[in-house]
Design goal:
The complex is a heterodimer of chains A (about 475) and B (about 300). Chain A is mainly α. Helices cover about 70% and strands about 0% of the residues of chain A. Chain A has two domains: about 5-185, no CATH class; about 190-275 and about 355-480, no CATH class. The longest helix of chain A is centred in the N-terminal third of the chain and has 38 residues, at about 75-110. Chain B has a domain at about 45-130 and about 180-310: SGNH hydrolase (Rossmann fold). Chain B is about 50% helix and about 10% strand. Chain B is built from 13 helices and eight strands. Classes of the chains: A mainly alpha (about 475), B alpha/beta (about 300). The interface of A and B includes residues 464 and 472 of A.
């Protein structure tokens, strides 16, 4: 079920009413309702893959219980590996099997022994990368004794399958989300109103910004060989807004929806395009994934401790693995590696924690240094996004060499001029809203302190904006494919 | 919870009202190219405005033509009048699908009271969503309860937006001074609904195979039109106007389509009766040029005479 669909617009109020009016008195029933609703939500796409979620839930639940009882280190390690193998096994099979087979045959053939291997027609289950990482966080934290394993299967199943963030995150930590299922939830007006505000802004990001950018992005990327450098660069810039609007929009809707049910999820995006260097960008972009890798991969590898060579190795590992997490394609690996290259100078010069504050906090406009560094960071991010969007490595390099050609200084070749002007106006509005809202958790967060007339007037305008500028064909979220 | 529900209950109707005002405001101040989901082009493409205006004042009609651009660019009512002194009126419109044809039949059948209806049934009409044509008719004809029915049937955001704005324009007399040029680009509006295109020739391009599609709501509307004609005792014939051979042969399930259409009434496929040349008699893959139109209309008259229609 898509957040931007009529199905969800009907589904959400039904679950809301059942949750707060029918099952309010019984916490277990409320959690059971969440499990059922989540399975319906996921099964709407393909019910067959519910078995994967159920299996993963069962394995991690029993592994968790066993870890709670087991004191012997060897046994505990074995249990942890069972969980890792099951979860990463699913992920490996559904997401990476064909990639490895394909590359293996190419590599084998390269050494003069051509072999033929059949690829499988595998459907990638929606959201598998997200929920496997979420359940892994549970078993790892139980293994590390940071978390007491739960005996409440329904709560655990609700934690794994919680529908607002099931298919595209935020990837929640068991330490944050699971305890929320144990506590009785009472309706909180402020939290629910905040949730509605966040959902609305998420829909604007997805339906007004991302989907309209997608129109030009698709044309430019699919015909990149025919366009000049400035148009290709513009395609990259528009993709930067598309991916941000799409993914951060999803996160906002997910977090907002959770608030309607009395849950607090972690912030997943914090105005990343106002970052002044790439380290700040990665603290603000897909926070739940970055911190996941930090806590469960980077720090166990040694983090920023040890020799310089060791640190460089760790940075490359975390960025490349993060890239590979996004998809089984070399483009994602290069995208990850490129970000590591961007990050490295900051790490080596120990300047990766220079910008921990909010840019131009308390002021309307940034100083010129911030403007330049924001611009530069955005520019290198756009170049990296080309790898993320390109069909393959060859396409990405051809695209980038197209950008850095003499025609970069020609006028962009825009065929549908009026629509292009329109998207520029919409993006300008969006940037302004994000800039003035950057001190909150999301762009329209600050509206809550405004008088009702301003608040409601703004909501009505945003609703209208969606109605007037949304694409009328349902468009899935990009991150569903990950 | 009570406060939350009360606020929602107050916010929803207020935002509906605000939405309507903003919609009209947007329609008035924002140029049409910058309104993605409100498309109100009047006078628009295909001279629909002039045609509908004339339809309201037309005398009793002997033959009424219905259909898409193949109808208003293919049935030259002047020819019929010259040859037989028969007054015909062409009520075709751009991308007209059965949903719109039904609305026009409901709106104009009584006033025009034709003795024969000729409906152009290109294989593509049943697969259309009907949005483009709905927008065209809303912007270029008066709006009434038939418009609402059509919008509900089309069930598309653009249609609803445009309908609201069109009703506003009608009610506030914003269309009263509207005039349409008879010559627009290469199109010249001739009397009684026909549009003549400046003479040009089709340059062949590749056509890809495709299937005739049937949308349930279009088939339902089509059946309703025929039932209405039967109830009103107006005889009708179904006609497939000629298209280029390349396009005609691109349909992979034409037999299935013909089976379907033959069950609905007398059907004449002029692609089979005529041997037109793609390059000489068409200006694009779908439309006849004036030379092709003359040949087609002559053949049509012969067919009508032969069948004593």
């Amino acid at each position: 079920m898509l957040f931007n669909s009529i199905d969800f617009a009907i589904f959400l109020p039904i679950v809301f009413v059942l949750y707060w009016f029918i099952f309010q008195r019984n916490l277990k029933l409320q959690n059971l309702l969440i499990v059922i609703a989540s399975y319906v939500f996921y099964g709407w796409w393909d019910w067959r893959f519910l078995s994967l979620i159920l299996f993963s839930t069962l394995v991690d639940y029993f592994v968790g219980l066993s870890l709670g009882k087991e004191e012997r280190n060897g046994r505990r390690k074995l249990l942890l590996w069972i969980s890792i193998c099951v979860n990463l096994g699913f992920l490996g099979f559904f997401k990476y099997y064909n990639f490895f087979v394909e590359n293996f045959t190419v590599a084998y053939s390269f050494f003069g022994n051509p072999i033929k291997a059949d690829l499988l027609h595998i459907i990638l289950p929606v959201g598998i990368s997200f929920y496997t990482f979420q359940t892994l966080s549970y078993t790892i934290d139980v293994y590390r004794r940071k978390l007491t394993p739960t005996k409440d299967f329904i709560s655990f199943a609700a934690f794994v399958s919680f529908f607002p963030q099931l298919v595209a995150g935020p990837i929640e930590r068991a330490t944050n989300l699971l305890p929320q299922f144990y506590k009785k939830r009472t309706f909180n007006y402020d939290l629910a109103a905040d949730g509605m505000r966040q959902i609305l802004w998420g829909l604007v990001m997805k339906m007004v910004i991302a989907d309209n950018c997608a129109y030009f992005v698709n044309i430019i990327f699919e015909n990149s060989e025919h366009y000049n450098g400035s148009t290709l660069f513009l395609g990259g810039v528009l993709f930067a807004f598309q991916i941000y609007g799409d993914f951060a929009g999803y996160s906002n809707i997910a977090i907002g929806t959770s608030k309607l049910f009395g849950f607090n999820l972690m912030q997943n995006f914090a105005f990343p395009y106002f970052s002044r260097d790439i380290a700040e960008f990665w603290r603000r972009w897909h926070i739940s994934l970055s911190t996941w890798f930090r806590d469960y991969l980077y720090i166990p590898l040694g983090g920023s401790r040890g020799s310089t060579g060791f640190q460089i190795r760790n940075i490359f590992i975390i960025f490349i693995v993060s890239g590979f997490w996004h998809g089984a394609n070399w483009t994602f690996i290069v995208w990850g590696a490129l970000n590591a290259v961007y990050f490295l100078p900051l790490l080596l010069l120990k300047r990766n924690r220079n910008h921990l504050d909010i840019v131009a906090k308390g002021r309307y406009l940034p100083d010129w240094r911030s403007v330049v560094s924001i611009g530069l960071t955005f520019f290198i991010t756009v170049i990296a996004w080309v790898f993320f969007r390109a069909e393959n490595i060859g396409h990405a390099f051809a695209y980038i060499s197209g950008i850095f050609s003499e025609s970069l200084f020609d006028l962009p070749d825009i065929r549908n001029f009026h629509q292009f002007v329109l998207i520029l106006v919409l993006i300008s509005f969006f940037i302004a809203a994000e800039w003035f809202g950057r001190e909150g958790k999301f762009a329209t967060d600050g509206l809550k302190s405004k008088p009702r007339l301003v608040r409601w007037g703004s909501y009505m305008f945003l609703v209208f904006l969606i109605g007037m500028y949304m694409q009328t064909e349902e468009t899935p979220f990009i991150y569903f494919q990950f | 919870m009570k406060k939350f529900l009360v606020n929602i209950a107050v916010f929803i109707p207020l935002s509906v009202i605000a939405y309507l005002f903003l919609l009209i405001f947007w329609g008035e101040i924002v140029p049409d190219k910058y309104r993605i989901n409100l498309i109100y082009k009047s006078p628009g493409y295909g001279h629909t405005f002039s045609r509908m205006k004339e339809a309201k004042e037309a005398p009793l009609t002997k033959v009424l033509f219905l259909g898409s651009s193949q109808a208003y660019r293919g049935f030259d009512v002047r020819y019929m009048f010259q040859e037989e002194k028969i007054f015909g009126f062409n009520l075709g419109s751009s991308a007209q699908s059965p949903i719109q044809t039904k609305m026009l039949v409901n709106r104009y059948l009584d006033s025009l009271s034709p003795k024969l209806v000729i409906m152009e049934v290109a294989p593509t009409i049943f697969g259309r969503d009907g949005v483009e044509s709905s927008l065209d008719l809303m912007a270029n004809d008066v709006n009434d309860k038939e418009t609402l029915k059509m919008a509900l049937k089309t069930n598309h955001l653009k249609t609803y937006h445009t309908m609201i704005y069109a009703f506003y324009r009608d009610w506030f007399g914003r269309n009263e001074k509207k005039v349409e040029k008879m010559l627009k680009g290469e199109d010249r509006y001739r009397k009684n609904g026909y549009v003549e295109k400046k003479m040009s020739y089709y340059k062949h391009t590749n056509r890809y195979e495709r299937e005739v599609e049937f949308s349930e709501k279009q088939v339902e509307a089509f059946n309703d039109i025929l039932a209405k004609l039967r109830n009103s005792k107006v005889p009708y014939i179904l006609v497939q106007a000629p298209v280029t051979k390349g396009l005609y042969n691109a349909f992979t399930n034409m037999e299935e389509y013909e089976e379907f259409i033959k069950k609905k009434g007398p059907y004449y496929d002029f692609n089979k009766f005529m041997n037109l040349n793609d390059s000489l008699h068409f200006y694009d893959a779908v439309h006849l040029n004036q030379r092709g139109v003359e040949l087609f209309n002559r053949k049509l008259m012969d067919t009508l005479r032969l069948n004593e229609l």
